[in-house]
Design goal:
The complex is a heterodimer.
Chain A: E1 2-6, E2 10-14, E3 19-21, E4 23-27, E5 31-38, E6 44-50, E7 56-58, E8 64-68, E9 73-78, E10 87-95, E11 102-103, E12 107-112
Parallel strand pairs in A: 2-12
Antiparallel strand pairs in A: 1-4, 3-9, 5-6, 5-10, 7-8, 8-9, 10-11, 10-12
Chain B: E1 4-7, E2 10-13, E3 19-25, E4 31-37, E5 43-50, E6 53-57, E7 64-70, E8 73-78, E9 87-94, E10 103-104, E11 108-112
Parallel strand pairs in B: 2-11
Antiparallel strand pairs in B: 1-3, 3-8, 4-5, 4-9, 5-6, 7-8, 9-10, 9-11
Classes of the chains: A mainly beta, B mainly beta.
């Protein structure tokens, strides 16, 4: 079984500032890691994923995330946010031996002018 | 070309009615899912089908019944609708056990009055 904890339910930030959305997980098996974004009144869209290899992964819209195995974390970062990044962000894990994904409770990112 | 399409997008109905939501994917994925998102944005998996076979059946009232006529379609039928069923229902699909992440539909907002 696995669980996902998104440490901040809401993150307000000013435009062009950097942002980090934090995600910790626990699992008894190896997992793949994902970040999804949900814009208002839309479905979830895959931002990026970590399967193996380099622990720093780059995704769409200038986002990146770093996998830290020892700390079981997969934090999402962007060096400079835009108003259009305002959305709900979900961290998720999937066992490598197939099975359902487990989603975190989401972090609401609000970018203010 | 919409990858995962759900109909209807909005559904307003009275308590006690029976309604269905349809989902189709044109990605050639082998697994499809139904998720429920509540007003706090929490995502909860309901069902999953792999090649028309039910593989995940979470603790969901038996008023909810999924049906997969083929691997490209997954429908959700709800009997005797209750106020607490009001939520956004998302269909999703994946390949290879979710290795590459999920593709979500745009959601069906169900309001029971």
């Amino acid at each position: 079984a696995q669980s996902v904890t998104q440490l901040d339910s809401q993150v307000p930030v000013f435009e062009e500032a950097p942002v980090e959305l934090r995600c910790n997980y626990s699992s008894s098996v190896s997992v793949y890691l994902f970040w999804y974004v949900q814009y208002p009144n839309q479905g979830l869209q895959l931002l990026l994923k970590y399967l193996s290899g380099s622990t720093l992964v780059k995704g769409i819209n200038g986002f990146e995330a770093e996998f830290n195995k020892s700390q079981t974390s997969f934090h999402l970062r962007k060096p400079s946010v835009h108003i259009s990044d305002t959305a709900e962000y979900f961290c998720a894990v999937s066992p490598t031996n197939a099975g359902k994904s487990t989603f975190g409770d989401g972090t609401t990112l609000t970018v203010k002018p | 070309d919409t990858a995962v399409s759900q109909t209807p997008k909005y559904l307003v109905t009275q308590m006690g009615n029976d309604k269905s939501i349809k989902c189709e994917q044109n990605l050639g994925h082998d697994t499809m899912y139904w998720y429920k998102q509540d007003s706090k944005k929490f995502l909860k998996i309901m069902f999953s089908y792999n090649n028309k076979e039910l593989i995940i059946n979470e603790t969901v009232p038996n008023r909810f019944s999924p049906k997969s006529p083929d691997k490209a379609h997954l429908n959700l039928h709800i009997n005797s609708l209750e106020l607490g069923d009001s939520a956004v229902y998302f269909c999703a699909s994946s390949q290879a056990g979710g290795l590459y992440g999920y593709t979500f539909g745009s959601g069906t907002r169900l309001t029971v009055v």
